[in-house]
Structure formats: C-alpha cells, structure tokens
Amino acid sequence: xxxxxxxxxxxxxxxxxxxxxxxxxxxxxxxxxxxxxxxxxxxxxxxxxxxxxxxxxxxxxxxxxxxxxxxxxxxxxxxxxxxxxxxxxxxxxxxxxxxxxxxxxxxxxxxxxxxxxxxxxxxxxxxxxxxxxxxxxxxxxxxxxxxxxxxxxxxxxxxxxxxxxxxxxxxxxxxxxxxxxxxxxxxxxxxxxxxxx
Length: 197
Prior knowledge:
Layout: E1 6-7, E2 10-12, E3 20-22, H1 23-38, H2 41-47, H3 53-65, H4 72-87, H5 91-105, H6 118-135, H7 140-153, H8 156-163, H9 173-188
Antiparallel strand pairs: 1-2, 2-3
C-alpha cells in the first residue's frame, strides 16, 4: 500500500522515479472517479434494490476526496462493491458496481510509472461507460458519450497526474477499449476545466 511510501503529505515512488503524488492529487483523482461512477449507480440499484454496497463505496470515495482519511473504509467498501458486482443479475449492473469499486480504489493510486496504475485513475470512468452502453442494449455510441462526459469532469490536476504515467495498457476487452479512449482524450488536451465539486 502507499502508506509505506508516505512522506508528510506526499507519496513518492520508492525506485527514485519522478512521480510524486500529494494527498491533494489523490483527492482530485478520487473525486473524478467518484463522479464518473455516481452517474451509473442507478443501473446497479435498478437491478439490486436492497444492496447499498456500491453506493457505500462511492460515498467513501467522496468522503476521502473532501478531506477524509484514506484508510479502512475505502478498502472495505471497495471490496464490498466488487462482491456486489459478482452478485448482480445483469452485466450492466456488474459494470456499475465495478465503477463504484474503482472509485473507492482510486485513492490507492501508487506512484509507480506503470501503465497498470492508470486503472486507478480511469477505471471508474471506463466501467461506468460500459455499464451505460450495456444498459442501452450494448450501444457503443452511449459508451462514447459517457467517455466524453468523463473528459469534461476531469480537472487539470487529474490530467496532470495522468500524464505522469504511461498510456493505459492494452487488453481488458471493451472496458479496456473505453479506458484507452478516455486516456487518449484526456492526454490530447481537448477538455474544458470541470467546475469544482
């Protein structure tokens, strides 16, 4: 976990690389992920009315993003949302729960210059886009629209953090494709600054 790399309010790679992430950087990334996941929460809740685990994960992500502690609540709710994904009845609901899990997990972005770390930044957006397109009858146009909206939610800090890491990795099926679309759009600089949350 990142806690072993903590130095005051900054997290840095133990291998001497250039990546330094402040706690505020992590909060902004987590806020972005929570905002992306939140828009498809109803997809999960329409399928599993009495299961609050994805909502709890998004709530924990927002709590950290707004100044709370990065600790057990984030980890526990992320794991619980993943379990909720496994118990959902539809693929769309499963992806919505995975978006919530990714939102809570965003706080654990590691300062390692590896493409796999991009999933902590963009995973919630990619899973949310996939949930939306599945809920719309597997319509890729809907997924692309959600990617566009995610780009608009990103703050300059989120984009700057993203640019410290290699491009999103290959593979991952349709969610991986959506993540690479989001990654490319954010890196291109074609986005407008999001309003503060």
